[in-house]
Amino acid sequence: MSVRGPRGERGEQADRIVAAARRSFAASGYAATSLRSVAQEAGVDPGLVHYYFRSKTGLLEAVMQPPEGFGASVAEAAQHPLDERGRAFVRANLRMWEDPVSAEVLRSIILTAAQEPAAMQRLRELFSELVLAVVSHGLPDAERALRASLIATQVVGLVMNRYIWQVGEIATLPADAVTDLVAPTIQRYLVDPLP
Amino acid sequence: MSVRGPRGERGEQADRIVAAARRSFAASGYAATSLRSVAQEAGVDPGLVHYYFRSKTGLLEAVMQPPEGFGASVAEAAQHPLDERGRAFVRANLRMWEDPVSAEVLRSIILTAAQEPAAMQRLRELFSELVLAVVSHGLPDAERALRASLIATQVVGLVMNRYIWQVGEIATLPADAVTDLVAPTIQRYLVDPLP
Q: How many structural domains are present in chain B?
């Protein structure tokens, strides 16, 4: 039995609706997307969108779900000893972004959030959870939030340049080379004395 | 005489049109914005928008112009000796983003680029020019593009978290504290041996 919900026709239809909403939110913005246009794009009856997701907010919530395995992947990285956790965290992030399916999900989350405050709030929460996991073992309570925030700046900038904007050398290097270049920064934000 | 163009009624009207386009591109996206709606928002006759900017592309070009002083501010930072240039570059960036007028321009450039490929291309060029200036003195030719790209990841992530998304501790700290925290990373990307 799958953990992702019902298979068969019903599960497939719901997946198709979410995929259509994802494309439309990312390309045209949340405000400019209607349940009707999502239904049309997904090739289903509008009533079915209401049936599965209740409202546009319900559809947004579905679109803002992180890709399968992201939470687990970050949690695994967070279990590494402090002196190698920076590298493990960079690798966990790159692994998700190098996979076309999860990259598409992550990309649409970021583009949707850029234009819709409710989605931005969801992205903030998601990001805090993920990054805070990495600083939650072996660091002083008083430093965790700042270290997490510094790590977030470097990871977000890496993702924006490499995957969203695709600009500069960082966009074309192999993932292992990117890890070698950026992991030391994450590691320093994790453990170096704060100024 | 101002270098920004004619003052008086004509200059003010053009400024008002660009400001209206800026808001609309950033909030609704470039595709969803019409010259007519920009004219209405700016409170001018649609013919005037055509007269000043020719086309939607002309208006986009105007919206994508970096704020006054950004180029000069970065060029000044780029003249600092290598051992203090990282800090100077971070300060030049923060100075532009801490100013509400130039921050609004930069913010709309980033949000417009997120949804419009032509604007993204313009942002890429702009960014390359600005960041390449910082690595252009005193560094080996072969390393410049990679160092510029690494610096860009950290600066973009800082800007996204602090100013666009306003998430985490980095969003609320005083600018001087942010400089102390992030400048060492830029400095390392500038001069530390590459892996």
A: 2
